[in-house]
């Protein structure tokens, strides 16, 4: 555990663990990806939109 808050999308709960304590499903990080000026794949993400 790195100390970052995590989110369970099925229960709408925030936790610090890798799995949700109420449903047992894996949690995700609610933070956006870091910005990098040397974004190699930004062109492709913009093409999808």
TrEMBL record:
GO terms for biological process: pseudouridine synthesis; rRNA processing. Belongs to the NOP10 family. Involved in ribosome biogenesis; more specifically in 18S rRNA pseudouridylation and in cleavage of pre-rRNA. Transmembrane segments: none annotated. InterPro entries: H/ACA_rnp_Nop10, H/ACA_rnp_Nop10_sf, Nop10_arc-typ. Pfam families: Nop10p (PF04135). Keywords: Ribonucleoprotein, Ribosome biogenesis, rRNA processing. The gene is nop10. GO terms for molecular function: snoRNA binding. GO terms for cellular component: ribonucleoprotein complex. This is Ribosome biogenesis protein Nop10. The keyword rRNA processing applies.
């Amino acid at each position: 555990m790195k100390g970052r808050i995590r989110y369970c999308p099925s229960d709408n709960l925030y936790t610090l663990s890798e799995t949700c304590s109420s449903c047992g499903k894996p949690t995700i990080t609610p933070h956006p990806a870091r910005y990098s000026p040397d974004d190699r794949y930004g062109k492709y993400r913009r093409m999808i939109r």
